[in-house]
Design a protein that fits this description.
Largest sheet of chain A: 5 strands, mixed
Structural class of chain B: mainly alpha
Structural class of chain A: alpha+beta
Strand order of the largest sheet of chain A: 4-1-3-2-5
Helix content of chain A: 25-40%
Helix content of chain B: over 70%
Strand content of chain A: 25-35%
Oligomer: heterodimer
Number of strands of chain B: 0
Radius of gyration of chain A: 14 Å
Number of strands of chain A: 5
Order of helices and strands of chain B: HHHH
Bound molecules: flavin mononucleotide
Strand content of chain B: under 5%
């Protein structure tokens, strides 16, 4: 069943920019194989990740991510079935939140860029998860 | 309570603050955000007790001023 999961976590002080690049490379390398797409937003102190894909694959990845020492206190915010993917061509879009300029590291269509811009600017207020993403800024 | 809500509750209960002031503050910020967006009684109560735990820790470590911004 197609599902989505959002979690927040505390970025560890040892997770520097080099580690960030490694995380993003893992996302791009691995998520394609299990058909997971989504977005990873991060600031100097926090992560918020939105994952979409088959329920089993998402939970498997979530269990792995939770054990990663580059963050702690991983808390699931929401999860559940999903009718269609929001980010079908993103292995894992990423954005450093403090940067005003949106700087995407993976391929995505113009439609997805618009979707994401709407998401982070707060135009899409349909779910509590989105409220949380807004509070993150 | 749904499976997802249960996972969330367990994640909140499992929060461990450690002793790094930055990480304690960030954990408290996240719990405060969750408290604001959730309406489930058990989740709210779990968030509140974690908040109390974190605030007490901050005070014990001498960060009384920092602890004040998390008081509800
Ligand atoms: C905040 C955060 C998000 C992550 N997201 C993913 C992800 O979407 N996909 C992934 O494969 N690994 C992700 N990782 C990394 C995994 O925890 C793990 O290190 C990685 O999958 C190991 O795979 P590799 O050995 O192939 O690099 C993430 C780690 C962190 C800290």
């Amino acid at each position: 069943m197609l599902s989505q999961l959002i979690y927040v976590s505390v970025r560890s002080s040892n997770c520097d920019e080099i580690e960030m690049q490694k995380i993003l490379s893992s996302c791009i390398k691995n998520n394609k194989n299990v058909d997971i797409t989504g977005v990873l937003l991060y600031s100097d102190t926090k992560f918020i990740q939105y994952l979409e894909g088959e329920y089993k694959e998402i939970m498997g990845l979530y269990d792995k991510i939770k054990l990663d020492p580059r963050h702690k206190n991983v808390i699931m915010v929401s999860g559940g079935p999903l009718a269609t993917r929001c980010f079908p061509s993103w292995q894992m879009g990423s954005k450093k939140i403090a940067d005003n300029e949106v700087n995407f590291k993976t391929n995505m269509s113009d439609d997805e860029k618009k979707e994401f811009a709407a998401l982070i600017s707060g135009e899409k207020t349909s779910s509590k998860a989105i409220d949380l993403i807004k509070k993150f800024f | 309570m749904s499976e997802d809500q249960k996972n969330k509750l367990n994640d909140i209960r499992a929060v461990s603050f450690g002793n790094n002031i930055g990480e304690i503050t960030t954990s408290l910020e996240i719990i405060t955000m969750l408290l604001q967006i959730d309406s489930d009684a058990e989740i709210i109560s779990a968030c509140k007790s974690k908040l109390m735990e974190g605030i007490t820790l901050l005070r014990n470590l001498g960060y009384t001023e920092d602890s004040k911004k998390f008081e509800i």
